[in-house]
Amino acid sequence: MRRGMxxxxxxxxxxxxxxxxxxxxxxxxxxxxxxxxxxxxxxIWVLELTGSSGAAGVIFFLVAVPTxxxxxxxxxxxxxxxxxxxxxxxxxACVLVSLLVFWPSVWLIYVVTLGYGVSAQVYRAARGGLVxxxxxxxxxxxxNSVFGALNQGLRIVGPLAGAGVFAAFxxxxxxxxxAVTYLASIVSLLMLRGVPDLTRTAEREPxxxxxxxxxxxxxxxxxxxQMVVAGAVAFTGAGMINVAVFDLVTTGLGRAPEFLGVLGxxxxxxxxxxxxxxxxxxxxxxxxxxxATGFLLNGAGLxxxxxxxxxxxxxxxxxxxxGLPMILVAAVTLVQRRTPNEVQGRAIAASEAMVDLPxxxxxxxxxxxxxxxxxxxxxxxxxxxxxxxxxxxxRIRDQARQTA
Length: 404
Known about the structure:
By secondary structure, this protein is mostly helical. It has 15 helices and no strands.
């Protein structure tokens, strides 16, 4: 354990010493803070305007549905300088969220959310490719852990800030705050220099085959295919949780919708711890054991949350937070390590799309059925799915070791 913690400390010092990583880190702080504050506020905003948990759940559906554009997004990221792509993604999102400052309405919230989802897809693929070009393969897991800790740490502050600003000043104020963070992120990216990735790729493959290069790579690489299938199965039902959580909070716990911000921060606390642990765990046990641990923790957390008692729900949120970075960091690190640089954007986008597409469909289904089945059945079934996937991933790892 001491070795893992020491390695994590060294990696933090490396990020802070390397000017390029430091600049990217600052930009991520600003970008992620605004995002975590906004998304929770959008769901609360729609719930307040409509009184419908299903309508609020549409927010998460619209954030996820741009995965349909994954082949185009990945090709865009691989054909243009990734820093430039990040800047344009920030700028587009800034313009969109600014609309809500002046013309707030349910339909415009939905339109802005969809555009934000596209921007987020572009940003994740471009950032993954950029990081791949900035560090060695051995450092990828640790650097991803640092950015994972950042992301999850902001999930503590962001939801509370978003819900708090919403309660005090309304949704337009949250949109204005997010727009400012996007502008600040753009400034930090403009300061980023000396990254080899900032040149146009020399690839001239025809557009049709190029669009599917990431998918072909994932399907042709056994380890990537297994990890992506496991994630797709588990997170299909997790999409329903994003709708059911509104019902859990308002019906099960009898709390106001703003309490989602508190739960988000509790989950974020667990996620920060998970992000610090994941780098050392991957070094010692590999990506598959790390991901399996995350799946099992999520299953246990969802089972606790299904009881709808405040202590159990909070404990479940901590376990879910602890497990999520183990799954996400292990998956993206595996993709980065097993993928050539010229296909990074498309492979990352493809892996996310293969998971997010069924996840998105599940959100859409949940918005329709939540009033009939309630939160309890959804939480119990999904807990069982996560536990089963975790056990299967452990078995895959054991079989791979026996084959080797």
